[in-house]
C-alpha cells in the first residue's frame, strides 16, 4: 500500500476513530491506530509485537483493532455490495469476453477461516479438518473482486449445510441473479439451475471434459481471489485469536480492502500480486506470483459435497452448456488443453 493510499484511507475513517484529548492523557492519533491495524492484518503478528512496535498497551491495541476494522469496512462498503441489474450485466459481459463463458455472473467458493476455539463452545466450531472455524462464502467477478460475501456460519455445519446456511443461498433461491444466468463452482456445491459444477468421475466423454475445462477457466477467478487475499493479509496464516464475532469483522475488512486495492489507482503497483494465466500453445497454466507465498494454514477449503441429487432442469442446463462448448461456443485451443 502506497503512502497516498494510507492517507486516503485515513481521511475516510479519521472522524470515526479519533478520540478527544483529556486532562489526564492525550488521545492516540488516528494515523497510529490505522498503521497498527494495517500492520496486524498484513503480517498477522501478535499483540505483543504490536506493543513493542507502536509503544502502546496490549489491551489498548486489542480494543481498537476491532473499532478500526469496523470503520474501514463501513467506509469501503461501496466496493463490496450486491451488484445491481446493470452491474450483473457488466460482470456477465466480462466473463464472456475474458473467460468465454456466456451467462456467467460470478464464481462461487468458500473457505474455513480458522479461529481459536471460544471458551465453552464445545464442538460448535469444530470442522472436518479437526480445527475450529467460521466459514467465508464468496462470489467473485471476472476482475477477481468479491461481489458478495457471507461470513459467520460455524465450521461444524455439514458439507451440504454450509452453502444452505449462508444468506447467499436464500438470495440465489429468491432470484438475485438475472433470469437465465448462472454461477460456477466446484464439487463442494450442489448442482442447481443457477449454479453449475463439473461433471464428476474419471470416465468422462470428450464433451464432458471440455465442459469441465471451460468451467475451471471461469472458476479460477475465485481461486485466485482467495489466494491473493491470503497472501496479502497474513492474518490468515494461522488461527485468528479473537471471538467469532470479532473474526467476522476482521474478515469483512480484509475483503473490502482487497476490492479497494484491486480497483484503486492509489496502490503501489510494484507489489501487486499477479494471477494465473494460460499458455495456449503449450497447453499449460502459468501460476500467479501469489502462489509463491507460504501456504496459509488459516484458510481451509470446503469439503466435497456428497449430494448427488439435482433437478432435471439443473442437469439439462449443464448439458446445454456442454453442447454449446463443443458447438458454436468452442474455442480453438480447448481440445489441445484437455489432452
UniProtKB/TrEMBL annotation:
What residue stretches are annotated with the DDE Tnp4 domain?
108-259
GO molecular function per UniProt: hydrolase activity; metal ion binding; nuclease activity
GO cellular component terms, alphabetically, are: nucleus
Query: InterPro entries in the record, alphabetically?
Result: HARBI1-like (IPR045249), HARBI1_dom (IPR027806)
Q: Report the subcellular localization.
A: Nucleus
> Which UniProt keywords are listed?
Hydrolase, Metal-binding, Nuclease, Nucleus
Major subcellular site: nucleus
Cofactor entry: a divalent metal cation
A single Pfam family, by name? Answer: DDE_Tnp_4
Belongs to which family? Belongs to the HARBI1 family.
PANTHER family (alphabetical): DDE TNP4 DOMAIN-CONTAINING PROTEIN, PTHR22930
Q: What is this protein called?
A: DDE Tnp4 domain-containing protein
Amino acid at each position: 500500500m502506497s503512502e497516498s493510499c494510507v492517507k486516503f484511507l485515513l481521511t475516510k475513517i479519521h472522524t470515526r476513530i479519533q478520540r478527544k484529548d483529556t486532562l489526564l492523557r492525550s488521545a492516540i492519533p488516528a494515523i497510529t491506530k490505522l498503521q497498527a491495524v494495517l500492520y496486524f492484518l498484513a503480517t498477522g503478528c501478535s499483540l505483543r509485537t504490536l506493543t513493542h512496535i507502536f509503544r502502546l498497551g496490549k489491551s489498548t491495541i486489542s480494543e481498537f483493532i476491532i473499532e478500526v476494522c469496523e470503520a474501514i469496512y463501513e467506509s469501503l462498503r461501496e466496493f463490496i455490495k450486491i451488484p445491481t441489474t446493470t452491474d450483473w450485466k457488466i460482470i456477465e459481459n466480462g466473463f464472456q469476453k475474458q473467460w468465454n463463458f456466456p451467462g456467467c455472473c460470478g464464481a462461487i467458493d468458500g473457505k474455513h477461516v480458522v479461529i481459536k476455539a471460544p471458551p465453552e463452545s464445545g464442538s460448535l466450531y469444530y470442522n472436518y479438518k479437526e480445527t475450529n472455524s467460521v466459514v467465508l462464502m464468496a462470489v467473485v467477478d471476472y476482475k477477481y473482486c468479491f461481489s458478495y460475501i457471507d461470513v459467520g456460519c460455524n465450521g461444524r455445519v455439514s458439507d451440504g449445510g454450509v452453502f444452505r446456511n449462508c444468506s447467499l443461498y436464500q438470495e440465489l433461491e429468491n432470484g438475485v441473479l438475472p433470469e437465465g444466468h448462472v454461477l460456477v463452482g466446484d464439487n463442494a456445491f450442489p448442482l442447481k439451475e443457477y449454479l453449475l459444477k463439473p461433471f464428476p468421475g474419471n470416465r468422462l466423454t470428450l464433451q464432458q471434459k471440455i465442459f469441465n475445462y471451460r468451467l475451471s477457466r471461469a472458476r479460477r477467478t475465485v481461486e485466485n481471489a482467495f489466494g491473493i487475499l491470503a497472501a496479502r493479509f497474513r492474518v490468515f496464516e494461522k488461527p485468528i485469536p479473537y471471538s467469532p464475532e470479532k473474526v467476522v469483522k476482521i474478515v469483512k475488512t480484509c475483503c473490502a480492502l482487497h476490492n479497494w486495492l484491486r480497483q484503486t489507482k492509489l496502490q503501489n503497483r510494484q507489489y501487486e500480486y499477479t494471477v494465473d494465466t494460460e499458455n495456449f500453445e503449450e497447453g499449460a497454466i502459468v501460476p500467479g506470483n501469489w502462489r509463491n507465498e507460504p501456504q496459509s494454514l488459516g484458510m481451509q477449503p470446503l469439503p466435497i459435497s456428497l449430494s448427488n441429487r439435482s433437478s432435471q432442469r439443473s442437469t439439462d442446463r449443464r448439458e446445454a452448456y456442454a453442447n454449446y462448448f463443443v458447438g458454436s461456443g468452442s474455442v480453438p485451443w480447448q481440445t489441445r488443453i484437455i489432452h
